[in-house]
Design brief:
Strand content: 15-25%
Radius of gyration: 15 Å
Order of helices and strands: HEHEHEEHH
Shape: globular
Helix content: 40-55%
Oligomer: single chain
Number of helices: 5
Length: 119
């Protein structure tokens, strides 16, 4: 996936496409590598719409819009639920991704990440 990110970034600079989707491009990475992937995704987003499925706060914090996808089981059937997050809901989800839930330190860190990213 990371090789594909590099290729798509190069190609989109020359021939923009409307939408690019990355599903868990951050699997198996963290820290500085995750930040570098997030920076590259932001660069790619200058040339088109980028949809990213991620579990890492380093990447999610850079997005200008957040959606949460969750699994719901009802009457023995499994459904996917898509929920647009705004305002404090974005911050709370970011804190959850940090592993702190509603812990004040996690919320403060989430607030800082979103502010730093301009969200």
């Amino acid at each position: 996936s990371r090789i594909m990110l590099a290729l798509k970034t190069t190609v989109m600079e020359q021939n923009p496409v409307p939408t690019v989707i990355f599903d868990e491009i951050d699997t198996g990475v963290g820290g500085e590598v995750a930040c570098a992937i997030g920076d590259r995704l932001q660069l790619l987003a200058r040339h088109g719409q980028v949809l990213v499925v991620t579990h890492l706060h380093q990447i999610a914090s850079l997005a200008d819009r957040h959606f949460r996808i969750s699994k719901v089981v009802k009457d023995g059937r499994t459904y996917s639920k898509l929920e647009k997050l705004q305002g404090d809901h974005r911050m709370h989800e970011m804190a959850r991704m940090l592993g702190g839930g509603r812990d004040s330190m996690a919320l403060e860190h989430a607030r800082h990440l979103l502010k730093k990213a301009g969200a």
